[in-house]
Amino acid sequence: MLKQLKRLGGDSLLYALMNVGTKLIAFLMLPIYTTYLNPSEMGAFELIESIVSILTFVIIFGTDNALAYYFYKEKEEKDKEQFFKTALSFRLVIAMVFFLIFIVMGPYFAEVFLGSRDYYSVVLIAGTVLISEAVITLLLTFDRFNFKSKKVAGLTVFKLLLVALSSYVLLKFLNLKVESIYIGRLISGLVVLVFLIRPLFNFLSFKFRKDQLIKLLRYGAPLVPASIAFWIITFSNRIFLSMFESLESVGIFGVAIKFATVITLLTSSVQMAWRPYSMSIKDQPNAKKIYANIFYIILIIGMLGLISIASLAPFLLKFMVPDMIYMEAANYIAMLSLGSFLSFYYLIVSVGLFLEEKTAVISIYVGISAVVSVILNISLIPLFSIWGAVLALVISYVLVNVLIFIKSQSVYYIPVSLKKLLIPFIGGVISTGSIVIIYMYNFNSYYIFISWIFFFIVLLLTGFGKTVLNFTRGR
User: Any stretches that span the bilayer, and where are they (predicted)?
Assistant: First the structure.
């Protein structure tokens, strides 16, 4: 038992470090991208990325979760491997279909959405990357299920480092612009496949068992709508910005949101730990009080983080991105960080749905919020430009949290005061927004201290110190 716990702890720590490492490397590439790409080119990159991300969801089609289920359910090793062969064949077929669509429709897509057929080559390279990623992801998933965590983490970080290096070389010396990023990804993917050549030949087969494919799709397909809905909330704003504004606006928005997602360096580790922790204490007599305190404490930490980001965003952006053409992005970083935090916080307040096995409603509520997101983007972007996209993102995630919290409370009541959550949340948003306005209109920087003082007064009114004390004492 102790051996298993040690392995679980070691693997969890390794994957957490891998997750943080990959996000950090991606973030540190931002100064390079913004040095060699103008806002319009950054906008094209962001737009292509948004399309690639949704196609990745479709290619996987929930089979990753299905593989996890059937891998540990099957007893025979050959049956486990056959499930992966079937999944790989399915993913490759879908990826190749998309690649053919890119070949045929690429010029039209490049002209309509990217403003020039010159981006057709980038679209084709991105389609090739989709195919290589479909293979690599599945092979690494097989190793992860076999507890080869060091291999998975090592190859993942190595791959991203190789992307960074090759992209930099191509940008600096060949001036290939957006193509450099996707050529870099393709090169890194091919190199990683060399290390995975043995399992690749073992799994590569376009023959698959129909019964296994049906099982995989039946298990995984219900998870796809939620993934697509989250994509709509998080990524569709780039498409609407390109339609109603310009690629330059998409580029500025993309730089801002890359800074905003840095907050996930902290939330991702909490997210990984929360599910097992919340399940492990569910039978304790004071479990509900612990959940209530955690709701409040994580919210307060999140708000403090947002106010800190708002205070430091202009300086961090100027340090990371010296080109003044991108400085407008500083206006949006804090509020986009709020969206990133809320995209994580719903997982905390949904604990009751997981405990009572009522998670199916999450997809419904995320779907409703996705529809609202589309309406808000269409309505707000023509009126408020980039701020419209920011507001659409934040409001949609607020709605996700409210709907899921209310439903979770109805099936598993946790004694947390709604007022105790709302007051610091609203206070944090007011403080964050006021700091953003202070920087936008060049007011005296001393007013920032007033925003901080205001929030600390809010904390005192909601009894933050007492809550932390009770939590540390296990009450």
Answer: 12-30, 50-72, 92-110, 122-140, 152-171, 183-204, 216-240, 252-274, 294-317, 329-348, 360-380, 386-406, 418-440, 446-469
DSSP-assigned letters across all residues of 163-202: HHHHHHHIIIII--THHHHHHHHHHHHHHHHHHTHHHHHH
Total-model pTM:
0.88
Find, among 61, 68, 73, 69, the residue nearest to 98 by Cα.
61
Residues with Cβ within 8 Å of 166's Cβ and at least 6 positions away in sequence, in order, are 180, 183, 184, 187, 188
Report the distance separating Cα 78 and Cα 84, nearest Å: 10
Q: In a structure prediction context, what are the per-residue pLDDT tens digits for the chain, which is 475 residues long?
A: 344 434 444 444 555 555 666 667 778 889 999 999 999 999 999 999 999 989 988 898 888 878 878 887 877 888 888 899 999 989 999 999 999 999 999 999 899 888 888 899 999 999 999 999 989 989 988 888 887 878 888 888 899 899 999 999 999 998 889 999 999 999 999 999 999 998 888 887 766 788 888 888 888 887 788 889 999 999 999 999 999 999 999 999 999 999 988 777 777 767 767 776 887 788 888 889 889 988 998 999 999 999 999 999 999 999 999 889 999 999 999 999 999 999 999 989 999 988 887 877 888 999 999 999 999 999 999 999 999 999 999 999 999 999 999 999 999 999 988 888 999 999 999 999 999 999 999 999 889 999 999 999 998 888 765 665 555 555 5
Token pair listed for 180: 């450099």
CB 321 within 8 A of CB 34: yes
Buried b (16+ CB within 10 A) or exposed e, 81-103: bbbbbbbbbbbbebbeebbeebe
314 neighbors 268 (Cβ within 8 angstroms):
no
Give dist(CA 133, CA 139) in Å, integer.
Answer: 10
